[in-house]
Task: structure prediction
Amino acid sequence: MVKVGGTDLLEEFDLEEALAKVGETITLYACVHSVKQMSGFAFILLRTARYVIQSVYSAEECPDSIDDIREGCYVKVTAVVKKEERARNGIELTLKTIELMSKPSADYPLHVSKRRLGCSLEINLDNRSVALRNPYERAVFKFQEGVVEGFRRFMLDNRFTEIHTPKIVAQGAEGGANIFHLDYFQKDAFLNQSPQFYKQTAVAFFDRVFEIAPVYRAERHATSRHLNEYIGLDFEMGYINDMYDVMNMETAMLRYMMQYLKENYQHEINILGADIPEVGEIPAVKFEDAVAIIKGSKSKNKFDLEPEDEVFLCNYAKENYGTEFIFVTNFPSSKPPFYAMNDKEDPRTACKFDLLFRGLEITTGGQRIHNYEEQIEKMKSQGLDPEDFKSYLEVHKYGLPPHGGLGIGLERLVMKLLGQQNVRQASMFPRDLNRLIP
Result:
């Protein structure tokens, strides 16, 4: 319990806590989700931070007028808790007082009180501050909270240190054209494409690190799978034997995350109809073998997987291994990134992997180069000037343990867990090629 304005409140309208107070009077702040007038009484649905709770108003029980109470009003109520299986969430409040705290100046442009908004994605995003009041739309981001929290708890439990790295940088971690330029006090700067350089630096003194933060890509894509700003779930770990240590860590993390969601976010899972996968052993195929598996695909890319290839491989994994996940490893070493270690047994390939889930790449990772001379040589082989990366190379010069890591696209993972068709549905306020507001 906490005190706000001197009043005892339910810290968050927790159903179990509320049901423990059946027959008692509680105080609650909420938004009016809908009002349904009946003969002699009214049902008023109250939207709290997580739930929609049914309340009943009658003049005999509550002396306050509800003439000015309508959808979108913010109220303070006192009510007696009643268990009611027929009501939403199995609970009903008998109103004793209802105080109007704030009311809207205009009606909602969307059907917020409906189960689903029933509008196009563009209309949803154009009216985002209203759309997110819909319980289904809102549940997406409560569920997303659970994904992040599961990731964070696993990392901390496994001796990773959480770090926060700069997003304004002097050079991009991956270079190329997909980087946003900034005028930084009359100097060239960029929005960071990845915390890669800083993760590797931090391994030198923390051994294991992770970060949950924005990532920026100036890609001119307007597809259902691309955002120009997204949230990366990144980790880096030292003293590894090979990239398979990183892959095993991710497998364990995903297993923990899915269980955490089931135990703590069942309310949102029910609202969203989320399909939470079982995470067993995840199969791995080398890129060269993957190309052979998808030989019937129309892909002509010899260095990476095309979207249709990812779908094909996930279907293959489900049919042959009974899993919705598959690792693809050992991509061509001539392909970026320059910090990927070449495979000692087959230098044509790099110790790099992608994790595919339900037809989409959600992770890129691998073993990094820790040797100073080896890193310089790899840069030169990809046509890069080591002088341009002098600051980054200092961490190699002064020593690094064998290490590796990965980055997960949060929105892509949530998109696939919820069966959404567009990654923008998993971004609260998406930034893409055409959208800068709201």
